[in-house]
Amino acid sequence: MIRKRLSDAQKQAMKAREAKRLSTLRLINAAIKDRDIAARSDENSEGVSDADILGILAKMIKQRIDSAKTYEEAGRLELAEGERSEIKVIEEFLPKQLSDQEVEAAIKAAVEKTGASSIRDMGKIMAELKSEYTGQMDFGKVGAAVKAALA
What we know:
Shape: globular
CATH superfamily of the largest domain: Uncharacterised protein YqeY/AIM41, N-terminal domain
Strand content: under 5%
Largest sheet: none
Radius of gyration: 18 Å
Distance between the termini: 40 Å
Number of domains: 2
CATH class of the largest domain: Mainly Alpha
Number of helices: 7
CATH architecture of the largest domain: Orthogonal Bundle
């Protein structure tokens, strides 16, 4: 489903002659194709799943946030702005981000579901959250909230 949305968006960008948007969409498709090739085997001829694609998109956003920060620190504001415009295009294909309250509720549900009782169970909780909410929350920030919930 995400692949079709990406393909349709790429075609629209070509027709509308939106060069920057088209460039970003091509980068997304190239990253997915690279992962497809790496995942290909006799049993898996279809490539990566939608959940894997969401992971790829989240990773691309994180890379661009880091790059934008680096560019700003170096005084290269035009390059930082280019990274931010790519982030906006990539975010169009991610599901709606959960609010802070929804993240807290998801953590609480994951703790109950896994029966976690100590910080040693953090991996179980993170795995549960990633399987349910890939692309819907920032797992870098969620880690601290999980630690707080287990403390």
